[in-house]
Amino acid sequence: MVRFRLGTRGSPLALTQAHMVRAALADAQGWDPDMIEIVPIKTTGDRVQDRALAEIGGKALWTKELDRALYDREIDASVHSMKDVETIRPDWLHIAAMLPRADVRDRLIGAETIAELRPGAVVGTSSPRRRAQLLSHRPDLVITLLRGNVDTRLAAVAKGEVDATLLAAAGLDRLGREAGQPVPTDQMLPAPAQGAVGIETRADDAAATMLIGSIDHAETHACVMAERSLLAALAADCHSPVAALASLSGEMLTLRAELLAEDGASRVAGWVEGALGEELGARLAVDLLERAAPEVRRLFAGG
Ligand SMILES: NCc1[nH]cc(CCC(=O)O)c1CC(=O)O
């Protein structure tokens, strides 16, 4: 008998993450995993592969169809890569839990290090953050659009369509792909929420919210919410070259972030520290925007 329906995108990574949520929930509740049904739902983001996400409508393309299914009670919760979830979510939705975070770093496929890429190497990515960070280290690199799921992008390097690409270690690890070399976070600070899987419920569904709450990893949740609060304060969207990473030590949160110009020529970085529950994102946003060059500032806060 099905007791709970988990909605997910249908990509291999999304399905793997949904299975992780199912296993965690079954374990926490002492249920047979068969009591939890995984419901794959195709999103616009999965259908459109030939254009940059930023160009066709942004992160909502990953969630719109799942949100509708949740609203219409076809599913009881939806599983997301938190990195792909818009900063401003409708009030009727609630982020009920996050799984323990995976490796937050990006991995470079096609060379050992960024410094070792050949002069003028072609790097495929559709992420404005990765593009700007790569160009800030190596202005000679040629960045081309590369979308598609993890295996499509690995294949593009293997076939020589591009010299290199960057992929989140989290996705590679969850899919069991050992490709690539991790790039240290002091060289490439990850995207806000990278490596975190979140589960949303309807805010008015107390039963589902409590069930899902039983698998929440509080440290991941606090760090990702701090990173998302920075995005909110910056009014950043998926066009914005922004990186952020929070860490928790006892009750103290540290939030690091960097903003870049689209061509990576200008960059501003900073960090703040404070107690859990403090408005760290807002504080760091003010500091970064104050120090940012005009070409960076105009990309944020409606600038
Ligand atoms: N934007 C696509 C996306 N969304 C989440 C992940 C990987 C898993 C994660 O970061 O949680 C990826 C692929 C990538 O960036 O390599």
UniProtKB/TrEMBL annotation:
PROSITE patterns: PORPHOBILINOGEN_DEAM. The keyword Ubl conjugation does not apply. The modification S-(dipyrrolylmethanemethyl)cysteine is found at C238. Its cofactor is dipyrromethane. Keywords: Porphyrin biosynthesis, Transferase. Pathway: Porphyrin-containing compound metabolism; protoporphyrin-IX biosynthesis; coproporphyrinogen-III from 5-aminolevulinate: step 2/4. Its EC number is 2.5.1.61. GO terms for biological process: protoporphyrinogen IX biosynthetic process. The keyword Metal-binding does not apply. Residues 222-289 form the Porphobilinogen deaminase C-terminal domain. InterPro entries: HemC, Porphobilin_deaminase_cofac_BS, Porphobilin_deaminase_N, Porphobilinogen_deaminase_C, Porphobilinogen_deaminase_C_sf. SUPFAM superfamilies: Periplasmic binding protein-like II, Porphobilinogen deaminase (hydroxymethylbilane synthase), C-terminal domain. One of its GO terms (cellular component) is cytoplasm. Binds 1 dipyrromethane group covalently. Residues 5-207 form the Porphobilinogen deaminase N-terminal domain. One of its GO terms (molecular function) is hydroxymethylbilane synthase activity. It catalyses: 4 porphobilinogen + H2O = hydroxymethylbilane + 4 NH4(+). Belongs to the HMBS family. Monomer. The porphobilinogen subunits are added to the dipyrromethane group. Tetrapolymerization of the monopyrrole PBG into the hydroxymethylbilane pre-uroporphyrinogen in several discrete steps. This is Porphobilinogen deaminase. The lineage of its organism: Bacteria, Pseudomonadati, Pseudomonadota, Alphaproteobacteria, Sphingomonadales.
